[in-house]
Design brief:
Elements: E1 18-22, E2 25-29, E3 32-34, E4 39-45, E5 55-62, E6 66-71, H1 77-85, H2 87-92, E7 100-107, E8 113-128, E9 141-147, E10 151-155
Antiparallel strand pairs: 1-2, 1-7, 3-6, 4-5, 6-9, 7-8, 8-9, 8-10
Length: about 160
């Protein structure tokens, strides 16, 4: 039976568990993701003789870059993907950019996939490695920034 407030069979989604995949290949879990948004520009049109308002029409849609952060892992899937779209991987592909579908998927507390956002034509534009500090005891973090051409959503039954 579906919960009418969440629509996720009684499991309210939280921001604590989500997975990132590229073309169906699991890159890993991340601790933070930002930039999952869309903005619609508004074009205005002033009609002659109509002084009560200005027409507002939807214009171009834009999406900011997606930024994903996580603790450093011993899995190379993220860096392997970055290397395919830049540097020697880019050169080995005759300097042709390989755009991929990236998926951010919310996971329930029981491990069930709840909803995903599929990034169209995604590619890495920045990777930031861990900051080392011999005087501290902070966990090592990495960050990846992605450009894309928008996203679609998908819910799981």
């Amino acid at each position: 039976m579906s919960d009418t407030t969440t629509g996720f069979n009684g499991e309210a989604p939280t921001s604590a568990a989500f997975l990132f995949e590229v073309d169906g290949v699991e890159i890993g879990m991340f601790s933070e993701i930002e930039g999952l948004e869309v903005t619609v520009e508004v074009a205005t049109y002033s009609e002659g003789g109509e002084n009560g308002f200005v027409h507002q029409l939807p214009g171009r849609m834009t999406w900011p870059h997606i930024i994903l952060r996580r603790g450093v892992t011993n899995n190379n899937a993220l860096f392997d993907w970055v290397n395919k779209t830049a540097g020697t991987g880019f050169a080995a592909n005759s300097n042709k950019l390989t755009r991929n579908t990236g998926a951010i998927t919310a996971i329930s507390t029981s491990g069930t996939r709840l909803r995903s956002w599929e990034l169209q034509d995604a590619f890495a534009v920045r990777w930031v490695g861990p900051k080392f500090d011999s005087g501290g005891n902070n966990p090592l973090q990495e960050e990846i920034e992605l450009a894309h051409h928008g996203f679609t959503t998908k819910t799981y039954s």
